[in-house]
Amino acid sequence: MSGAIHPVIERILIPEEEIRARIKEIGAEIGRDYRGRDLIMVGILKGSIPFLAELIKAVPLDCAIDFVSISSYEGTRSTGVARLLLDLRENPEGKDVLLVEDIIDTGLTINYIVSNLKTRKPKSLEVCTLLDKQVPRRMPFKARYVGFPIPNEFVIGFGLDYNEKYRNLPYVGVMRQPALREGAPQPKTATV
Ligand code: 5GP
Question: Residues 102, 105, 132, 161: which is the catalytic one?
Answer without folding.
Answer: 105
